[in-house]
Amino acid sequence: MVAVKAQNIVKRFGEVTVLRGVELDIPDGAFAVLVGPSGCGKSTLLRLLAGLEQVSEGKILFGEREVTQLEPRDRDIAMVFQSYALYPHMSVRRNLEFGLRLRKTDAATMNQRVGEVAKMLDIAHLLERLPKDLSGGQRQRVAMGRAIVRRPALFLFDEPLSNLDPALRTQVRVDIRKQHDELGATSVYVTHDQVEAMTLADVLYVLEGGEVQQRGRPIDIYDEPRNCFVAGFLGSPAMNLLRAPLTRAGELWRAGEVAVRDAGHFSKLRPDAEVILGLRPHDLRACAEAEADLHLEVEVVETLGPELTVHGVLRGDAQRQPFIAALPAKLAVQKGERVPLRVERLHLFDAATEQSLR
Amino acid sequence: MTASQRELLESIAAHAVILAAVAFSLYPILWVVSLAFSGSTSLEAQVMPVPTDPTLDNIREVVGSTRTEVDGSQIWLFGRQLLNSIVVSIATAVVGVAIAIPTAYAFARFEFIGKRGGMRLLLATQMFPAVASAVPLFMILETLELLNTRTGLVLCYASTSIPFAVFQLRSAFEAIPTDLEEAAMVDGATRFQAFLRVVLPVARPAIAVTFLFAFMTAYNEFILAATLLNDERAFTLPVVLQRFIGEYDARWDLFAAGAIVVSLPVMLLFYQVQRHMVAGLGAGGVKG
Amino acid sequence: MRAALHRRWAKLAFALAFVLTALGPSLEARAEEPVVLWHAYRGAEEEALEAILAAWGGPVEVLAVPYDAFSTKLESTVPLGEGPDLFIDAHERLGNFRERGIVAPISAELLARSGGAEAYNLGALEAVRFEGEAYGLPLSQKCIALYYNPALVAEPPASLEAIAALGDAPDWPEGVYPLAYEARGAYAHAALLAAFGGALHDPVADDYAFEGEAAERSLDYVLGLIDAGVIPEDADGALVTNLFKAGKAATVFSGPWLAADLEGVEYAVAPLPVVEATGEPMRPLLTVEAIMLSPHGAEKQAARELLAHIAGPAGARIRAETARSLSARTDVPPSDDPLLQAFATQAAQSTPMASTAAMRAVWEPANRAIRKVLRRDLEPKPALEEARRRFDDVRRPPPPPANPAPVVVLLGMLSLLGAGALVHRARKLGGASGTLDALRRSLPAYAYIALGVVAVTVLVILPIFFGAGAALFAGKPHEMYYVGLANFVAILTARGAPLLSTGSFYVVLAVTVLWTVVNVFFHLAIGVALGLVLSRPTMRLRGLYRVLLIVPWAVPSYVTALAWRGMFHRQFGAVTGLIHAINDLFGFSLEPIAWFSRFSTAFTANVATNVWLGFPFMMVVTLGALAAVPKDVLEAAEVDGASRWQRLTQITLPMIAPTMIPAVTLGAIWTFNMFNVVFLVSGGDPDGSTDILVSEAYRWAFTRDAQYGYAAAYAVLIFLLLFATSRITDRFMTGSKEDRA
C-alpha cells in the first residue's frame, strides 16, 4: 500500500562502508526481494528501511513521505525477524496484541483482529501458550501473525525461513506469497537463498559489496545477468564460468571452442579479447559427436530423479576447472564417460570488468 | 565394566564429591548453630557440632529484647530492629537496582562517548580500599545532612551495591537478543517502551538476583551501621549482634543465636531466588 | 490482564510507601530536647544505669553503642556538633578525645556540685585530669585481681610461686590449671611486669618503657610458668572465663566483669599475689570509667545536671549494689561486699593507665613482642628491642610540610591531558562527521546513565578522590597539612628499615599477592569443579545441593569468620578435635597445631576461611556459564574422539572462560582487598606476617596513632597496583584475542 524508494543510500559503520549508493524503487504492492551472499549489506539495507539503523547518506521515501529520520514506530511497518524475536515473557496472544496495545487499539478490535490472524495462520489453538512451548514452525507463524495483525503499509522480512527445515520452508514460502497477495501490502524480503528469491519476488535486487548488482524481474535477471557475479549467484546448479579468448572467423565468433551462434545479441563483441564464457548447466544438451561444442569428461553423477547433475572436466581444459551439466535422467551417464555437449545458449562477459557483453 | 555400571559408579562419585563439599560448607555454620543452642561452653575439643546443655534461652534472650520508652511504654526492640534491617536492605536494593538498571542498559546497548572509559572507571572504583574512602563519604553525607539517618545509611550501602549491580545487569542485558527490542520498536514502541515492556520483564531473573545481592550487602553490614546510626530504635540487627562483643568479655552464645536469627530471612530469600541465580549470574540463560 | 497490571502497580506503590514511612521517623522533630547519653554498658551495668536514670526523672535519650564502634562514632559525630551530650567511657581514651575536641572540661562549679574534688578517690580523679582540669567525673574503677575457686584453694595463695606450686600437690585433680590469665596480652602482663619493677609506659617521659632487664625477666618468668604447665598458653578472655567456670582453673587474673559471668559458681576474690622472685606485689593497670561531657553537652543545663546526678553518691550506690562496680567516690565506701572490698584494695595497689597517644601506641608492639616470646620465636631481649623499634616507627615525627605548587601544576597538566584524550576519543568515535555528531548520537545514552553517573560520582568517585587526596597530607585529623609525596616515600622506603623486614610494603605486598593467587586459584578450582559435577545431566537433588552449597554466602561473613577462628583454636577448636579423632581412630599421634603461631599455618587458616566464603560465588558463576555451552559442541567433540578430560580442557573450559573472566577479575580485586577475614581470623598473627596491604592500611588509619594520610597513601598504592595489573592483563588478553582472530 506504499511504494518504497531509496536514493543513494550510503551506510558506514565507523571506518567500514557497508552500503555504497544503493537505489531502490519498489512499486506499491510489489513483493521485493533483496538477495545476496552474506555480508553484502542486504540486512543492513532492510534495517535502514525499518529505521533500526540510520543512513549515513541518502533518502528513504515511503510513497511521497520521506521517512529517513523517522523512528521505526512512525514508519507504519512490520518486520519478521530471522530469530522471530517473540517476546518470551508473553503468551502468543499478548505477542500478537503487543503492537496494537501500543497504539491503544480498543479491546474489541484487538480481539477481532487477533482472531482473524490466528485463523488465517492456523494458530488459534496456540494463543495462550508461551513461545518456549512452540515448535519452530509455530513460532514462525506467530512471528508472521504479529506482523500481519498490525496491518502495516510495508512488511519487512529478514530471512524468516532460515531457521526452518527444508520441507517446511517450501510450504511457508508459498504461504508467505499467498498472504502477500491477499493483503496487498508492499513487502521487502531479505534472503540469501536464491530459490526463495526467484520464487517470491516481483522485483528482485541482487546485492554484492554494498551495491545493487542488478534489479529486475527474477526471470529477466536469470536470463540476462548483467555481470559475472549475478550470473554465478542465481541459478542452481550455478552457471559454469570459463575464461576463453574470443575469436572471429568471418561471421562466426568463437569463445574458445564454443561457437557463439547468436552473436547478434551481443553488442560489445571485440575480436581477440579475453572473455568469460558463461554456460548454465541447463543450457547444455547432450548431442551427437558431430554437433558437439564441448566434451565433458564425467567424474561424478548425481541423480535427482528427472535429471542428472553431471560433474566433470572439459576435454582440453588444461586447468581442469570443474564443470557441471544438467542432463535428462534417461541418458544414464556413467562415471568415466565422455559426453559430447551442445551449447543452446551462452553468456559472455568482459574478462576485465566482468560486465555482460550484451 | 558395562556403560551402565560406569554410569552408576560415576554418579556415586559425583554425589560423594558434592556431599564432601556440602559438609565443608555447612560445618562452620553448624558450629554457630550449636553454640546458639548451648547452655554452657564445652571445654573439650569436639568434632561434632552438638550443643552442650541444649537450651533455647539464648534465642529467647536475643529475640525478646525490649525497650522502655520515655513515656513508660514498652516496645519490642528486636522486632523493631528486624524491621529496620529489612527496610534498610530493601531500600538499598531498590535504590541500587533502580539506579543500576538504566545505567547498565545504556552500557549494554548504546554506543556513546565515554562508554569504555566509564566502564573502566567503574571497575577501577572497586580497586580502591574503603578504608580511605569511608571518611570522605561520611563528610559528603554530612553535607547532605543525612549523617544520622537511615537514608544516609542506604546511600552508603548503595555506593557499594550500584557498581556491582551495574556489572551484573550489563552482562544480563547483553545476553538478551537485540532482536527483541527491535521487534518491539517496529511494533510501535519507543526505545524506552521497548526497554520497559520487553527488556525488563525478560531480564527479571537477573534483576531478582542482583536485588538479592544488594539486599545482602545491606543486611549483613555492621561497621557503617554502627557508625552512622545514633538511635537504638533505628539500629539494624548486625549492630545489635556487635553489642554482644564487649571490651572485656564477649557473649558468644548470644552472638551466635543472633547470627542464626539474622541469617534466617536471607536463607529463605536464597531458597526462593536460587533457581534464578544460575540464569541471572551467568547471563546467557535467556532465550526466546 | 489489566487488573493484574493494576495490582502490580499497587503493590509497588505500597512497597514504596512502606520504605518511605519507615525511613521517615528519624527525621521527625522532637518537642522537648532530651539529654542524649551514650554508653557501651551491658548486663548489670546497663541495668544500674537505667535505675539511676529512672531516679533522675528528666527526659534522657540513651544509646547503648557496640563497644567496637564507640570511639569511631564519637569521632564521627561530636566534632560535627552531633552525637551525645554525655558519654561514658574509659579514661585512657581521654587524651585522644581531647585532641579531637570531643570532650569538654568539667567546670569547677560542676565539680563542686558533685561533691568537690575531695569526694573522689585521688588517683581516679588524677586519671581524668589534664593540666589541672578534669575532663570527666570518675564513675568506677576497674583493674584485674585474683579470683580463686575455694573448692580447689581454700585460702588465696600469698605468692605467685605458691599458686604455681599448687599443681605439685599429690591430690591435685587431673587437667586443672593452677592459674589462667591472658598471658599473651600486654594488659595482664603489665601487672606482672610491675612486680619486676618494669612498666609498659613511662609517664614522665611519655615514652615506651617495656624494655630492659625487668621486662626480660618478667617474660622469662611467664615462660617458666608455661613450661611448668601452670598456665595454659593460648588463653583468651573467653577461655579464661570458661576454664574458671568449669573448675579447670584454680585461680585466674581477671577484672570485675568476670563476676557477671560467674552466677552459680563459687568463687572469691583477693588482691593479686606477690612475686617471690622480687618480693614485690603484682600491680595491675587501673582504668577509670568516667562520664564525660561533649562540647555541645557542656552548654546544656540539663546535661550538666544529669552528669552530676550520675556521678553523685546516689548513683555510685546504685552502681555498687546493682552492678557491683567499685565506686571512685570517697563518700561511698565499698559496702561489705567482699568482691568490692577486694577490688578496692587492689585498686589502691594499681597504676592508672596513661591516656596519651604514646600509651596507645605501646599496645601493638608490646602484644606482638609478648606473643613472639611465648611462642619462642625470639628471646625476650631481641623481641623487646624489636617492639621498641616498632613503637618508634609509629611515633616517628610526621613529615615536614611541603609546598603544594608542584602538585597544582601537575593536576592542571593532567586535566589538560585528560581533556585532550577525551577529544581524541570522541573524534575517533565520530569518524569524519566529527565530535559534535558523535556527541549528539550519545545523548539518548546519557539520559539513561545520568542518574547512575550522579549517584556513582557523589557516593563513590568523590569519596575516593578525597580519600586519595588525603595521601598527600599528614597530621591529626582536623589539622592536616600538605606534605607532598612524603607518605609514599616513607612507605616505599619501608620508613628507613631494611626493605625486606617484616611489615615493609614489599613483604606485605608479596604476602598479598600470594594471598590473592592462592585464594582465586582455590575459588576457581572448587567452584568450577562443583559447577561441573552439579551440571551433570543425570544429577539428582541438584536444587537441594545448590542451596546447601551457597549457604556460606547467606550467613554474615563476620560471624562465620569468627566461627572459623574458633575452629582453629589450638586446644579447644574443632580442628584439634578432628586431630584427636584421627589419632584415636588410626592410632596416630599427631600433635594439635598452634595455627596462629606460624606464618604457614596462620596463612592456611585464613585461606581456608576465605576459600570457604568465596567458592559458592564461583560455583554459581560456573553453573551459569555452563548453561550457555551448547551441547552439540560437546557431542561433536565426543564423536571426534576427544576423551572426557580433553573435552573439559579443550572445549568446556575455553567456552566458559569469557563468561568467567569478569567474575574472576572482580573476585581477584575483592580478595586483594579482603580485609575482614585477615582481621578476624588470624588478626595478622603471627607478628603481623599474615597482614595484607589493606589490613596494614587499616591499622595505620585506626590503631596506629590515626595516621590517616599514611593509610590513604597505602590505599592509593593498592589502587595503582590493581589498576596497573588490570591494564596489563587487559592488554595481554585483547592481544591474544586478536592473535586468534
TrEMBL record, chain A:
Span of domain ABC transporter: 4-234
Span of the signal peptide: none
PROSITE patterns per UniProt: ABC_TRANSPORTER_1, ABC_TRANSPORTER_2
MF-aspect GO terms: ABC-type transporter activity; ATP binding; ATP hydrolysis activity
UniProt record, GO biological process: carbohydrate transport
Keywords: ATP-binding, Nucleotide-binding, Transport
Pfam families, per database record: ABC_tran, OB_MalK
GO cellular component: ATP-binding cassette (ABC) transporter complex, substrate-binding subunit-containing
Protein name: ABC transporter, ATPase subunit
Source organism: Plesiocystis pacifica SIR-1
UniProtKB/TrEMBL annotation, chain B:
Membrane topology: Multi-pass membrane protein
Entry annotated with the keyword Ribonucleoprotein: no
Gene Ontology MF terms in the entry: ABC-type maltose transporter activity
InterPro entries xref list: BP-dep_ABC_trans_perm (IPR050901), MetI-like (IPR000515), MetI-like_sf (IPR035906)
Subcellular localization, as worded in the UniProt entry: Cell membrane
Membrane-crossing residue ranges in chain numbering: 12-33, 86-108, 120-140, 152-173, 194-219, 254-271
Record-annotated ABC transmembrane type-1 domain positions: 82-273
Keyword tags: Cell membrane, Membrane, Sugar transport, Transmembrane, Transmembrane helix, Transport
Stored Pfam families: BPD_transp_1
An individual GO BP term: maltodextrin transmembrane transport
Family in the record: Belongs to the binding-protein-dependent transport system permease family. MalFG subfamily.
Described function: Part of the ABC transporter complex MalEFGK involved in maltose/maltodextrin import. Probably responsible for the translocation of the substrate across the membrane.
Record-given protein name: Maltose/maltodextrin transport system permease protein MalG
UniProtKB/TrEMBL annotation, chain C:
Top-level taxon: Bacteria
InterPro entries found in the cross-reference section: MetI-like, MetI-like_sf, SBP, SBP_1_CS
Location of the ABC transmembrane type-1 domain: 509-729
Signal sequence coordinates: 1-31
GO molecular function: maltose binding
Topology versus the membrane: Multi-pass membrane protein
Key word S-adenosyl-L-methionine present: no
UniProt keyword annotations, A-Z: Membrane, Signal, Transmembrane, Transmembrane helix, Transport
Pfam families, per database record: BPD_transp_1 (PF00528), SBP_bac_8 (PF13416)
Residue ranges that the Swiss-Prot or TrEMBL entry lists as coiled coil: none
CDD domains linked: TM_PBP2
GO terms (BP aspect): maltodextrin transmembrane transport; maltose transport; transmembrane transport
One term under GO cellular component: ATP-binding cassette (ABC) transporter complex, substrate-binding subunit-containing
Residue intervals passing through the bilayer: 405-424, 445-474, 480-498, 505-532, 544-564, 571-590, 610-630, 651-672, 708-728
Subcellular location: Cell membrane
Recorded family membership: Belongs to the bacterial solute-binding protein 1 family. Belongs to the binding-protein-dependent transport system permease family.
Protein name: Putative sugar ABC transporter, permease protein/periplasmic sugar-binding protein
